[in-house]
Amino acid sequence: MVQSLLKATVFAMLAISLLIQPSLARPEYMKEFKEYPDEIKRCTLCHVQSSGYGGLNPFGRDFAAEGGLTEKLLEMDSDGDGYSNGAELSSGSLPGNPERVDGKEAPGFVLILSAVVLVTVAFVRRS
Ligand SMILES: [Ca+2]
């Protein structure tokens, strides 16, 4: 039983390390947003997930294309939800996620972790 649990733990750690990519968020970019509410100051401002997995969201791609927080970027509606990036930033909304209304993280990390736990439990039961 202990050996099975050890195998399952090693398997789970390997799975997590393969699924999670390092974050590409850079603190120097966040300096451009210092006048905005704290709710938007997170990796998911520009990335699909807080882990950096999934790449840039629509706002992150537009930010990169503009080379920074420009007036044009503030007037754009990167996520297509009908609100300009500037309006969303000022209200504490993430402009790269049309479903986000209060700055909550994307559920990606939780889903990945849940999948790893389920696979680990299945592995232990099979052993
Ligand atoms: Ca928008």
Key features of this structure:
mainly alpha; transmembrane; membrane; elongated; 127 residues; transmembrane helix; 6 helices; binds calcium ion
Instruction: Give the count of structural domains.
Output: 1
Structural class: mainly alpha
Helix content: 40-55%
* SSE succession: HHHHHH
**Average pLDDT taken over every residue:** 81
Sheet having the most strands: none
InterPro entries: S-S_Temptin
Pfam families: Temptin_C (PF24784)
Organism: Geoglobus ahangari
Keywords: Membrane, Transmembrane, Transmembrane helix
What does this 3D model show about the protein?
InterPro entries: S-S_Temptin. This is Temptin Cys/Cys disulfide domain-containing protein. Keywords: Membrane, Transmembrane, Transmembrane helix. It holds the Pfam family Temptin_C. Residues 77-101 are annotated as: Disordered. There is one protein chain. This protein is 49% helix and 0% strand. The model is unreliable at 103-107 (pLDDT under 50). It has one domain (2-126). With 127 residues, the chain is mainly α. The chain contains six helices and no strands. The termini are close together. The longest helix has 19 residues, at 108-126. Calcium ion binds next to loops.
Task: Provide the fold topology.
Elements: H1 2-19, H2 27-30, H3 58-66, H4 71-75, H5 85-91, H6 108-126
Helix pairs in contact: 1-6
Bound molecules: calcium ion (CA).
Calcium ion binds next to loops.
